[in-house]
Amino acid sequence: xxxxxxxxxxxxxxxxxxxxxxxxxxxxxxxxxxxxxxxxxxxxxxxxxxxxxxxxxxxxxxxxxxxxxxxxxxxxxxxxxxxxxxxxxxxxxxxxxxxxxxxxxxxxxxxxxxxxxxxxxxxxxxxxxxxxxxxxxxxxxxxxxxxxxxxxxxxxxxxxxxxxxxxxxxxxxxxxxxxxxxxxxxxxxxxxxxxxxxxxxxxxxxxxxxxxxxxxxxxxxxxxxxxxxxxxxx
Length: 234
Ligand SMILES: Cc1cc2nc3c(=O)[nH]c(=O)nc-3n(C[C@H](O)[C@H](O)[C@H](O)COP(=O)(O)OP(=O)(O)OC[C@H]3O[C@@H](n4cnc5c(N)ncnc54)[C@H](O)[C@@H]3O)c2cc1C
Prior knowledge:
The protein has helices at about 75-80, 110-125, 170-175, 195-205; strands at about 1-10, 15-20, 35-40, 45-50, 55, 60-65, 85-90, 105-110, 135-140, 160, 185-195, 215-220. It is α/β, with parallel strands linked by helices. The longest helix has 17 residues, at about 110-125.
């Protein structure tokens, strides 16, 4: 699908929000938490990004792209992209989405995971008329890197890893270990660095006795895995 960049802004020191418009966008039917593969203009590398917002009436798709220290074609594109640039994207797909019947929804992730998870939590909030008792915790390097939430929703807590690695994050694991969780009725949504997701999943299953099927996991990046999740390495 051809798209054109409508606007770009710095959301945090390490994340940019990019608005795309395109003729095919109004007819897309998206579930909260959906993602797409972007074919980057410079060299054609494929990179996966969650859809933060879809507004069919204005033909709009909004992405939020992390600027990470290792760098890569996605990072370079996000740093340099400008209004009126072109971007080809593939039709969106969904890996995890919300289960409105769970009594204890729990959203946990790092900065990249926060993009789909906060969009999903906003959709769940809307779908239940604000009645869902939503829980969660997110991790960022520091307060300035906390990903801004949808306006008007009760804030979810963030923890900060400082200079400790985001890979297999003990900071996020400790935060989840400290939560008061019910033994049943939960639905967990985990997204972000692959080993962190695995640690969190194992904790919920092995230490908290949560049913494996109640835990939806979306690994989004991993060290030394360029093009993670895009179907092939670039
Ligand atoms: C379903 C899905 C949804 C995603 N949604 C988003 C999203 O909404 N926003 C977003 O920013 N990313 C998202 N990602 C992650 C994104 O696709 C990857 O981070 C991608 O690899 C970044 O491309 P790049 O060219 O910048 O780095 P790459 O060339 O892919 O990677 C180079 C190196 O950088 C490191 N690296 C890659 N990504 C990160 C990172 N996020 N943080 C720290 N180090 C990293 C790794 O060591 C890697 O080997 C999603 C991934 C998936 C699978």
